[in-house]
Amino acid sequence: MSLGTVSRVFNGAEVGEDYRRRVEEASARLGYHLNTYARALKIQRSMCIALVLPSLRHPFFARLADELTAALARENYRSLLMITNYDEQSEQRCFALARQNIVEGVFALTYSPDFEQLGSIPVVSFDRQHSDRIPCVASDNFAGGRMAAERLIALGCRRLLFLRIGPVICGEVERRGLGFESACKDAGVPHELFQVNDTETEAPIYRFLDKHVHEGRFEFDGIFCNTDGLALRVMKYLAEKNIRIPDDVQLIGYDGILDFATGDYVCSTIVQPVPQMAAKAVDLLLHIDQAGECRGVYRFPVQYAAGGTTREPRTSSRFSAEAQIFDPFRKLDRTVPLPENR
Amino acid sequence: MSLGTVSRVFNGAEVGEDYRRRVEEASARLGYHLNTYARALKIQRSMCIALVLPSLRHPFFARLADELTAALARENYRSLLMITNYDEQSEQRCFALARQNIVEGVFALTYSPDFEQLGSIPVVSFDRQHSDRIPCVASDNFAGGRMAAERLIALGCRRLLFLRIGPVICGEVERRGLGFESACKDAGVPHELFQVNDTETEAPIYRFLDKHVHEGRFEFDGIFCNTDGLALRVMKYLAEKNIRIPDDVQLIGYDGILDFATGDYVCSTIVQPVPQMAAKAVDLLLHIDQAGECRGVYRFPVQYAAGGTTREPRTSSRFSAEAQIFDPFRKLDRTVPLPENR
DNA sequence: TTGTAAGCGTTATCAC
DNA sequence: GTGATAACGCTTACAA
Known about the structure:
Two copies of one chain form a homodimer. The first copy, chain A, is α/β, with parallel strands linked by helices and 342 residues long. Chain A folds into three domains: 3-34, no CATH class; 44-139 and 274-300, Response regulator (Rossmann fold); 141-273 and 302-325, Response regulator (Rossmann fold, 3-Layer(aba) Sandwich). Chain A contains eleven helices and 14 strands. In chain A, a hairpin with a 2-residue loop joins strand 8 and strand 9. In chain A, helix 4 (59-74) crosses helix 10 (274-291) and helix 6 (141-154) runs parallel beside helix 7 (175-187). The longest helix of chain A is centred in the last third of the chain and has 18 residues, at 274-291. Chain A is elongated, with a radius of gyration of 24 Å. Chains A and B meet through helix 3, helix 4, strand 2, helix 5 and helix 9 of A and helix 3, helix 4, strand 2, helix 5 and helix 9 of B. Strand 2 of chain A pairs antiparallel with strand 2 of chain B, so a sheet runs across the interface. Chain A binds a DNA duplex (16 and 16 nucleotides) through helix 1 and helix 3.
């Protein structure tokens, strides 16, 4: 019996029944496992995708990594996890590593990447359109911005504020403010945008807020923040000034971050459909990208969810409904966020 | 000039200066990258470690993955990320995959693993001592339990409660309750333990709480929960009963979860030193395990941090102090949790 | 110091 | 349907 036959058994090719049995029996007995590396070397496919992310400390990135890994696993791909810590050089090193590891593709959520490094390895980026040759997956930031403004207006706000902090590079993410502005203009509602670009500190935000607090009252009655994180910090700040949310000021963030303990949205928010975005990204990287044209941005519809920082009942995330359930071994519907289990 | 020479250049072996230059120049020009797979095949080392975790949705797991990946990267190792979704079969599949990928080691946070699958691949587990042949990294749960009880007592609590939910398997984690009990006994303080094992729902916890609420007062004035997550849910429950925390009841959790937005501890808590634990785990897997005896459990000292659910000023996490700083490209001290940046 | 050649475990292409 | 064999890209004795 030859190696060829063994290989055929493991690859599900046509093999005589007796041969098949003998191979299976022998490999079970010897604890034999196919060697992925030799295989990859031979067929020039690693079945491996690199995830290049800034960090897993932020729930959005962690969620993205979780969903991407799940989607890849469904397609029989492995995830090589690389953390850049928002560091430019680290991004380069990750790309070089990815290349050496002959990954078949890269998911990149990076800030100043040099895609040259990657040679001809396909890339899908999130939230930033780095080049017209690299497809970008994002939520519909413009629609989300509009949605937030419209919601605040519908909830009775008369003077709106948009707050943003982040690096300038964030192509797609910029659109949150544009959408907000456009909806305010359409509705003829007074509004202001305050954006801090690419800076070391959020202090300007707080100085701005300070300037607009007079005798315990805030000049704006509706705020849209470009992330849930910022919304939470603004909320904390206003609380310290004894300004009540949502009674005095209503607040909407962006992302749809869930509280890990309760499964509630941490604030009223524009929810990004992370599972769908991950699935599309995988599809793009594995199937579509190869074939033909797939450049450009894929924008996913967002949803508004009330999370306690607006004057309306909370939207229950599906997770909330299941938060009580606590069975580590229950078969999981991946579309449902997981309850804590430790 | 031969392949051997090229190889030697890339491996930093002694090579004539002119040769080295020529090789470097040519590989830069051609965009050549070493092929990790061929290399791994030849030298029988993949420089790859598998991370088998239940999920990245829980901040503790995400943090662990983040720190492990960072620690591995420092040693020039890659992380293969595998998510089990708390699913038994999935755990098996991950192990089989790990084996095929000839990883040089596995980090396992699993519930009912069959380590046979892994053959002779070294494993380090977290929080559960599965076998005396597999080293286990954990925090000092017993000391943590004691610490929580002692703290509550020092803060004036007269009747203590320990609440726990989780699968029975959690070897090390059980010790939280034991430590709590021992400290209560030492201090002669009345206390009760209520533990829900391996169940589908937290409902018994809430029924227990219900039974002990009388006329808007809770029978216990200090609660230690086996995770921060549970503490937060209990807090929410009590808040709904108009029982105030920390005024009426003081609450301590376990883990040291940080709020992603503000960097504050989400509740008063026993903090696990995740970075140190990750570093040790990597050390164990890569260096020590190979050499000699390393079986048994490695228990890391924990620290108490006040997070607003006890009657005392908050402990500032180092992150809090830096939460205002917002520079994506700043060189990072890995021991400091990261501020949000999106 | 450099070149040569064998071999890592797999798959693919042939003959048989 | 099966067996032999070359080749994938690299490292490493060993020879020069």
